Amino acid sequence: MAYPEPNISTPLLEKSSSGSDSETSLTSEELRCCIPKNLTRGLQHKSLAILSGHIGSVSCLALCGEFLLSASHGKDIIAWQQPDLRRFTKFGYGDGSVKALVTIGNRVFSAHQDSRIRVWKVSRSSENIFRLTATLPTTKDYLCKFMKQSNYVRTRRNHRKLWIEHADSISCLAAYGGVIYSGSWDKTLKVWRVADLRCLESIRAHDDAINGLVAHEGLVYSASADGKIKVWEKGRSMHCLKGVLEGRRDVSWNAVIICEEGRLVYGGGSDGRVMGWERDVGRDNWRLVCDVRAHDMAVLCLCSMGDFVCSGSADKSIGVWSRESGGGLWRVGGVIRGHEGPVKCLQASCCSVGEGFMLYSGGLDKSLRVWWVPKENVVGQREWSRQRMIRPREMHDV
């Protein structure tokens, strides 16, 4: 099936003007040279590109080797070739609205509104670069469990399903240590082994929908609309509750990320605030170290890059925050605006360009936007004095 070429509007990611009619891909070094030297100091940010081509709102982003993957509520996934960000291929059409993406090695896992996880194999040797190889739960997993009545659980719609099945839309994915974690609006957290794609565990994790997941070194953080970020520790046979991080009353958590090798945890809430906790490894508890009013409306997504944290909001803006050693955040470079709808997802590239980094944002306006963000900016020092911080407090004991 042929798709129309995406509209690309950018002063920096355009074709070479060498006079050749053939398209020329920009290397990272060429892209670095495209950014004027006077932009590397004192600039807040720079818009590099606006990419379109999705059928629906852009819902999630992920990096997969040389590709940037973007998925939408329109059931499609687009692979963009880095660094020039030309569209390489589109796949996944017709498999249910895509809610989350995660990559492990040469495989891409996509979570869908139809409560299934699809597994795509990435291979340059195949004509179909992204090839669907499995759907979770697998048929083998079904056959091993469907005959035994004790494997069935009652769902909120008073239906019975196997415990390996999600009963509602899968909203988030996380991967670590050969395991995939999936969070759903059915309030459960499921654990899948990558080696054989088998569901190992189902946890009744929250009292409301799970909106965000992150995993690192045996700990899994699940953010929920019930106002709690729960910490789960991987034991010998199953995960157990290790801690609970709570914000203000009646606030839904929409996103969660970790920084500093798991020492710092940040959550984005429906009240427009970003809160952060520092983990005391020796005592296995978390204390609040950051509470900032980040946006006028709900924070929908978070991502980190080195000492920076980026937040996307329903107010159509992106905030860029510098992180101090104690976990506090202060705004740098002002607010990034450009989306015509809420910012639903963010992804930062680990490749440095000049004295900054690339930031990708997807919105409900169906566009994928590319930004260059400087790593040093004196504007941030002035903004810091205007940010109201609160003193750390111990989290609630479990």
Automatic annotation (TrEMBL):
WD repeats lie at residues 203-233. InterPro entries: JINGUBANG-like, WD40/YVTN_repeat-like_dom_sf, WD40_PAC1, WD40_repeat_dom_sf, WD40_rpt. It comes from Cocos nucifera (Coconut palm). The lineage of its organism: Eukaryota, Viridiplantae, Streptophyta, Embryophyta, Tracheophyta. Residues 12-25 have a biased composition (Low complexity). Keywords: Repeat, WD repeat. Residues 1-25 are annotated as: Disordered. This is Protein JINGUBANG.
